[in-house]
Write a structure and sequence with these properties.
Elements lengths: L2 E17 L6 E12 L11 E5 L5 E14 L11 H13 L6 E17 L1 E6 L9 E5 L1 H8 L5 E6 L5 E4 L1 H6 L2 E4 L6 H15 L3 E7 L4 H4 L1 H6 L2 E5 L7 H11 L10 H13 L3 E5 L10 H13 L8 H17 L13 H13 L7 H14 L8 E2 H9 L8 E5 L3 H22 L5 E6 L2 H4 L10 H14 L5 E7 L15 E4 L5 H11 L3 H5 L8 E6 L10 E5 L2 H12 L2
Parallel strand pairs: 10-17, 10-18, 11-15, 11-16, 12-13, 12-15, 13-14, 16-17
Antiparallel strand pairs: 1-2, 1-7, 2-5, 3-4, 3-7, 4-5, 5-6, 8-9, 8-20, 18-19, 19-20
Helix pairs in contact: 7-8, 9-10, 10-11, 11-12, 13-14, 14-16
The chain binds adenosine-5'-triphosphate (ATP).
Length: 577
């Protein structure tokens, strides 16, 4: 059965226009007002899908309920102008007569951008066909809802609100087109993020995940996963000397969720095991910070030589030649100006050096000393040490060996460190990936507090300029190289919103500021009233909006997320029994 027995009628179509969140334009939404028979246990609720007949035969327009409330004829015109005694009398009557023919349920719904053709079979298509006011509105059955919206083999991550259906996600596609988790503090962002990570690792065998953890949460939220998979818990602190020290210290430095307050012994034991498994690493960050020569920097250096009035005119064509050589090299190897210069450039340098020699340029000319200086810089081998640095991290992250680590949690409570690590790491990973041309492993970068990495206004002083460039590169170009991001934030307003278009799957919970909610409705072209529903969401309740990624069809879905902590606890007990 496509539809349930309950039917309503479309009474009205209203339009609302408001300025866009950035104040530069306006946006218009349609609200569809539907009447349904009154019943105390009517299954109507926010998030339900409806279909209404349209101007075209066999075609229905699909709507999603955003709000509903009971109406009684007696109350429609009851305002302060009616004398109090009469008002009281009318309201008493209404109270007694809700279950009469004079009452109905008024339902507000918005279009989800789909039409459905019922002609023997059922066919869904993107689009909008004007519905016929006064015509029948039908409610989907759970079965139709499920078939229409979810991939059959999707990964279960929760339960759809008000429906008896599992929320199933196409996790591979969701990751491919990046994920955003947006909610006010305490709504369950880290819980949802950890749950998505554990489900993804389970489903995608060629996936590796790296979490940049600034709030010291994930070491516990994913502790069972760290124990199960080959993994790394990376800190900037000195490593503990022994198992006992490790257990105590890690328990002290991590945020323990309230639900696990009674389980401290279990967590300590798990940390001790992690230490014994040799999964802890101390990350070394070079004190000079960003110190690599990039192609952009090299090109600037060469160009300044061509413009330098002290460089002899006869040498300038060779600097120009070097610029052309660099351009060719970068094109052939798909390098960007942010890529770090390495041995690949030696051939270009040799080529220009040889041509300059053949042309009879003097041995002590600037061109030769310039080329020689660059060569020396490249051949300078990094100091060999036992330290685990960003390069080691990148190498392990891209290691294709199935026995190599799959989960990395990098704990950087200092935001400046976190920004520096992420920018160096993304650069390293891009450079290595471009050279290897490999599509595995797929890598997911998880960034909590994303507004700190890609802020609305970035500054050099706190490395946010570097982290912004790196994370933007990941979001814009990562997909080609199988490098993806999951970012979460509590304030969209503080985020560089240019990147929002790159993210195709959004998980939204309570966002108290209208600006943040409006930005979401505008990005996806869904109605304000639907996003506003999130204001009443409970902890762990989410609105999932996805554009050609997580779901079979792009219908905004309200759901209760599975609780990461329940799975964590169950697994820890199993692993450590
Ligand atoms: N799906 C869920 N089911 C049950 N409880 C949940 C769920 N999601 C979150 N919670 C509980 O709500 C509390 C807050 O969750 P969480 O720490 O994930 O929120 P947050 O948005 O990351 O907060 P913050 O921004 O402060 O880090 C936790 O105690 C958590 O266990």
């Amino acid at each position: 059965m496509i539809f349930s027995n309950i039917e309503g009628r479309l009474r009205e179509i209203r339009t609302f226009t408001r300025p866009t969140a950035d104040g530069r334009g306006t946006i218009t939404f349609r609200v569809f007002v539907i009447e349904m028979p009154f019943s105390r246990d009517t299954p109507i609720d926010a998030g339900k899908l409806l279909a209404v007949e349209t101007i075209r035969k066999e075609y229905y327009l699909l709507l999603e309920v955003t709000d509903y409330f009971p109406q009684h004829y007696g109350m429609v015109n009851l305002d302060g102008s009616v004398p109090p005694e009469l008002r009281e009398e009318i309201m008493k009557r209404v109270e007694e007569k809700w279950e009469s023919k004079e009452s109905w349920i008024e339902v507000y719904a918005s279009s989800v951008g789909y039409v459905m053709r019922v002609n023997g079979g059922v066919e869904f298509k993107r689009g909008y066909i004007p519905p016929l006011p006064g015509s029948k509105v039908k409610l989907f059955t759970d079965e139709t809802f499920e078939k229409f919206v979810f991939y059959e083999n999707g990964v279960k991550i929760g339960k759809v609100v008000n429906e008896n259906i599992d929320l199933k996600l196409n996790i591979e596609k969701a990751i491919k087109y990046h994920i955003g988790v947006f909610a006010y503090t305490g709504s369950g962002k880290s819980n949802l993020t950890s749950m998505l990570i554990r489900k993804s690792l389970e489903k995608m065998k060629d996936l590796k995940v790296i979490v940049i953890d600034v709030s010291m949460e994930y070491g516990i939220l994913l502790l069972d996963q760290l124990l199960t998979y080959e993994s790394r818990l990376v800190t900037l602190d000195r490593l503990p000397d022994n198992q006992i020290d490790a257990g105590r210290r890690l328990l002290r430095t991590h945020v323990i969720p309230e639900e696990l307050n009674e389980d401290r012994d279990l967590i300590r034991k798990a940390f001790e095991t992690l230490y014994n498994q040799g999964k802890l690493r101390k990350l070394y960050i070079p004190p000079q910070g960003i110190s690599f020569l990039t192609y952009g920097m090299l090109i600037d250096m060469v160009r300044s030589q061509t413009e330098d009035k002290y460089v002899a005119t006869a040498q300038k064509p060779f600097f120009m030649m070097l610029l052309h050589e660099l351009d060719r090299l970068m094109r052939e190897n798909k390098l960007s100006k942010d890529d770090v210069v390495d041995e690949a450039v030696l051939h270009s340098l040799d080529e220009v050096e040889m041509k300059a020699r053949e042309a009879g340029i003097k041995e002590n000319a600037t061109i030769f000393s310039f080329i020689s200086a660059i060569k020396q810089y490249i051949e300078l081998k990094p100091i060999e040490s036992e330290e685990y640095d960003v390069e080691n991290l990148a190498i392990e992250l891209l290691d294709q060996d199935p026995a190599s680590p799959r989960l990395f949690i990098v704990e950087t409570p200092n935001m400046d460190d976190a920004r520096l690590v992420i920018s160096l790491l993304i650069d390293q990973v891009f450079m290595r990936r471009k050279r290897s041309y490999s599509s595995i492993p797929v890598v997911l970068f998880v960034l909590d507090e994303a507004q700190e990495f890609i802020p609305f206004e970035s500054r050099q002083k706190d490395y946010s300029e570097y982290s912004s460039i790196a994370v933007e590169k990941l979001l814009r170009h990562g997909r080609k190289y199988h490098l993806h991001a999951l970012i979460s934030t509590q304030r969209l307003a503080y985020l560089n919103t240019n990147v929002l278009q790159q993210i195709h799957t959004y998980f939204v919970s309570t966002l108290p500021r209208p600006y943040d909610r409006q930005l979401i409705s505008e990005t996806f072209g869904i109605s304000d009233s639907l996003v506003d529903r999130t204001l009443n969401f409970d902890i762990g309740q989410w609105l999932l909006i996805s554009f050609k990624a997580a779901l079979k069809e792009d219908i905004p879905i309200m759901f209760y997320a599975d609780n990461n902590i329940s799975e964590l606890k169950e697994n820890l007990l199993k692993i450590l029994k």
